Amino acid sequence: MIADVIAETRGRMERAVESAKEDFATVRTGRANPQLFQKILVDYYGTPTPLAQLASLNTPEARTIIVTPYDKSALKAIEDAISSMPNLGANPSNDGNIVRVTMPELTQDRRKEFVKLVKSKGEDAKVHVRGIRRKAKDELDALKSEVGEDEVARGEKELDALTRAHTDLIDEALKRKEAELLEV
User: Fold this and answer.
1) Taking CA 131 as the corner, what is the angle to CA 126 and CA 135, rounded to the nearest 5 degrees?
2) What is the pLDDT of residues 7-39, one digit of tens each?
3) CA–CA dist 144, 167 (Å, integer)
């Protein structure tokens, strides 16, 4: 029973770490990267649709991304969605067939803003992992009458080690992204 709780918690924490890494990937560095557009939702016939489902993304140059929509009628909606993305600072232009997105050069102040944003996302992810730990601890406490206090105490130690390992993984990913952002 305790092993089931630990296994379920491990899976949920691993998903939280992956989600944090995906969040970090959406914060731009000096180069244009299609992952920056991963979280963009386009209003496609009244339905918020992920950009990746509506268009292909190519990176022909270091600071340019070309968005080729599968449906030409979505061009204007795609352009509007990209220009309204807050942390991108991109300048989309529509030529009737494709949307060309030119990423501006990052200033040192902008890089520092992005580092703050990534640190905030990292802290949110760690809070989420600790929330998962709290829920698992409650589940363990509920098992006290069935398995005994010693087993529950061992389970809590394992849970603490698991939590520490996953918050360390988030910290490592955060350090890598921070170094990537500050690299000129």
Assistant:
1) 150
2) 999 999 999 999 998 888 877 666 777 777 877
3) 27
Region 32-48 average pLDDT = 83
Whole-prediction pTM value? Answer: 0.70
Alpha carbon distance 140, 2 (integer Å) = 7
Tell me, what amino acid is at 11? G
How many CA atoms are closer than 13 Å to the CA of 107, on its beta-carbon side?
A: 4
User: Residues 82-102: what's their mean pLDDT?
Assistant: 82
Could you give the CA distance from residue 103 to residue 28 in angstroms, rounded to a whole number?
A: 9
Q: Which strand (E) or helix (H) includes residue 57?
A: strand 55-61
d(CA 50, CA 43): 9
Query: For residue 140, what is the DSSP state?
Result: H
- Kindly report the length of the chain: 184
Residue 51 to residue 70: CA distance in whole angstroms: 11
Both structure tokens of 22: 């995906």
